[in-house]
Design goal:
By secondary structure, the chain is α/β, with parallel strands linked by helices. Helix content is 26%, strand content 36%. The protein has an eight-stranded mixed beta sheet, with helices on both faces. The model has no long low-confidence stretch (mean pLDDT 91).
Length: 176
């Protein structure tokens, strides 16, 4: 699935938000897209990616900020509880050796009613043979999200491709 199609799907599923965190931001292409079209503030983390910070006025006249920092998805120390409206991970979920631990950390940094969106290769993708990687089925991703108490879980395989999108929500806190 090409990057442009993935970005369009992210924008459609998340809508407009104030802040978004991208886990596994790599070269920053998705961060820049998110900052321009989805969020006023887009911050990415990557254990090995390039660090950068950019600010500009977008086409709609609003101030935008895109930043990528070195950070571990299992212990996102740079950000407080309830910090982001949304968290995305594109082509990176399968790279997590402990996805449940990362999902717990995602839940911590998400605001109540915040959303997580996973866009990744699905089980059966040729990369499993070519690169020896392991991808998850929609049912496996759904089970992981349920185990971490996310709600309104919607996991779909893209028709004709071994690619999936998963969207879920952090439940509001009990005392709200």
């Amino acid at each position: 699935m090409n990057t442009e199609r993935i970005h369009k799907e992210i924008a459609k599923r998340l809508g407009k938000v104030e802040s978004v965190l991208d886990i596994g931001c790599g070269n920053g292409a998705t961060i820049r897209f998110l900052a321009e079209y989805v969020a006023h503030e887009a911050i990415g983390i990557d254990i090995a990616g390039a660090s950068f910070s950019e600010e500009w006025v977008s086409q709609d006249g609003n101030f935008r900020r895109a930043e990528c920092i070195r950070e571990d998805a299992y212990s996102i120390k740079s950000f407080s509880h309830n910090r982001f409206d949304a968290v995305v991970t594109v082509h990176a979920f399968h790279e997590l050796s402990h996805p449940i631990s990362a999902l717990h950390e995602v839940k911590r940094v998400l605001k109540p009613s915040g959303k997580i969106l996973i866009a990744d290769f699905a089980k059966g993708h040729e990369g499993e043979k070519i690169w020896g990687e392991t991808y998850y089925s929609p049912k496996q991703v759904e089970a992981m999200l349920k185990k971490c108490d996310f709600t309104q879980i919607d996991v779909k395989r893209v028709s004709g491709e071994n690619f999936l999108f998963a969207l879920a929500k952090k439940e509001k806190e009990k005392n709200e």
